[in-house]
Amino acid sequence: MPRLLAVALGSLGYAIYDPSFTESIQVSVSLFCGGLFLCCLFCHGELAMRRPAPRHLTAFYLMISLGGALGAIFVGLLAPYLFAALYEFPLTLCLTNEIIR
Q1: What does the alpha-carbon distance between residue 9 and residue 72 come to, in Å, rounded to a whole number?
Q2: Helix residue spans in 1-101 (DSSP H)
Q3: Among 18, 15, 19, residue whose Cα is nearest residue 33
Q4: N or C: which end of the chain has fewer CB within 10 A?
Q5: What SS3 class is residue 99?
Q6: How far apart are CA 42 and CA 53, in angstroms?
Q7: Are 15 and 32 in contact (CB under 8 A)?
Q8: How far apart are CA 22 and CA 36, in angstroms?
């Protein structure tokens, strides 16, 4: 799975760097949706592998939901004021790349 994710991240990075690669909407939507699916699949698999013992699961899931809520607040409310362009997707790809290592 990490090799497939590395290929997907490389393809997405190239597509962001050179937009002429994804001029067609059919190519860009399928490429970005497929790449985002692989990134999410990998991250959710890592979370499932790293879950703690059953007695600590409540705190684990509370922290997961807190992170989701804070991420949604950041992307929905803060990012439009902090960034001049759409940087959430490239930042997410970079952070996913750091998880692989």
Answers
A1: 23
A2: 2-17, 25-49, 57-73, 79-82, 88-100
A3: 15
A4: C
A5: helix
A6: 21
A7: yes
A8: 15
Q: In tens digits, what is the pLDDT along the chain, a chain of 101 residues?
A: 778 888 888 888 888 787 776 777 788 888 888 888 988 898 899 889 999 999 999 999 999 999 999 989 988 898 888 888 777 777 778 877 777 76
- What tokens were used for 19? 């937009």
Query: Is the full-model pTM beyond 0.70?
Result: yes
Residue 14 in tokens: 């190239």
Token pair in block for residue 76: 């929905």
What are the structure tokens assigned to 2, written together?
A: 């990490």
Which structure tokens are listed for 59?
A: 């705190």
The boundaries of the domain holding residue 40 are: 2-100
Dihedral angle at the C-alpha atoms of 14, 20, 21, 26, nearest 10 degrees? Answer: 130
Q: Which amino acid is at 54?
A: P
Neighbours of 14 (CB within 10 A): 12
Reference 42, options 82, 6, 83, 86; nearest CA is: 6
